Amino acid sequence: MSQETVRVRFAPSPTGFLHIGNARTALYNWLFARHEGGTFVLRIEDTDRVRSTQEAIDKIFDAMKWLGLDWDEGPYFQSERLEIYRTYGQKLVGSGAAYESTDEEKGTAIKFRMEGAATSVEDLLHGRINFDSSLIEDFVILKSDGFPTYNFACAVDDHLMKITHVIRGDDHISNTPKQLALFGAFGAEPPKYVHLPMIHKEGGGKESKREGAQFVGTYREAGFLSDALVNFLALLGWYPGEDVEILSRQEMIDRFRLDGLGKTPSQFNLAKLEWMNGAYIRAMSPEDLATRLVPFLREAGIEVDESRRDWLLQVVTLYQERLKNLSEFVEKARFFFTDDFEFDPAAVEKVLKKDSALAVLKESRAAIEALDELTPECLEADLRGVAERLSVGFKKVAQPLRVALTGGTASAGLFETMVLLGKETITRRVDRVIEKLDQL
Ligand code: GLU
Q1: Cut 0.70: pTM above it
Q2: Annotated catalytic residue: which of 209, 354, 362, 423?
Q3: In Å, what is the CA distance from 273 to each residue of 64, 175, 276, 324, 415?
């Protein structure tokens, strides 16, 4: 007997942006389909006419593409399948499984008869789940305006699309008895169900869908790499079999099995996502990283001319080791691209407003001006000379310069930074601070 081919679906309702929890659901469906050589269907459940928007649909497609979750079939839109649901509704009325029910305010709807329906669900992850009988009331399947309710459209489509495994959030467990009863009325074998435990917010608590930082787009804008986010999401509820944390997509596909899914909720952990993103950033070539950074620089109003590409690569290399995300580069390295950066008030107070600062800056400026060529070695020798002449420690020279050139006390290596800034920029910025020191 040939084994049935796996067919799974991701079925978002386009009522908002793609939430992290939904992205993980999509990812697990995708991984399962790819591992099994099956089919991944995308179905847009847009029958809620008030809350569904085109913008949300576009954002879902964007997010899926950005995450690299390509689908094999669809997108199907439930709003284009209304005839199918009506036909099925009529069939159920004909067989006695459903009946017309008139409400004075809401008009005539079609309700499904739940009597005699089973009250337990066999879940591949959780085993048998029993429901209390209060859930087995008759329910509306077609509203008076001819639109289907979620449970009905979902069951009709899972049936017609020959879905073999429904992998979705456990917020849908309570819908499952209704969907199973509908399959019974269709005279069809239901799919297998896998209900994924929620992702809890950091610090506990159920994740709210309205939480801003919980959307895929938010992480994209903050400069997380889609490969890193996918890797991170995969591990939020799936154990790949041994303690490996960084896995390529192919490795995830090779290892993905339903029995590796966790039964308990997982906890979102931003520090771990940042660590993972940093690891992916470090693994990139500086060339690739620079290409990814250009849109972030542009967004901040910074254009780097093609003729300065080599220089850009050097700046990028200076930061590559320490970046947690791409947008951080723009914050940390902004001073490389423009004189228009903020001075950290604490650094101004602590470093520039010290008695020795003015003399140090003047003496350093003259010493740097006199150099033929800037290299880390000759800058170091030069500035150690300044410290000696002024009888101050080397830090007393390095810190005011660092603040004058970068706006703060934390930056990459001072000498490397100075070499990449160049003599002209250094002298201009030191002059600016000397001139303004009494006004700072
Ligand atoms: N449209 C439902 C949702 O976004 C899908 C539920 C399901 O996968 O059956 O929650």
Answers
A1: yes
A2: 209
A3: 19, 32, 5, 9, 32
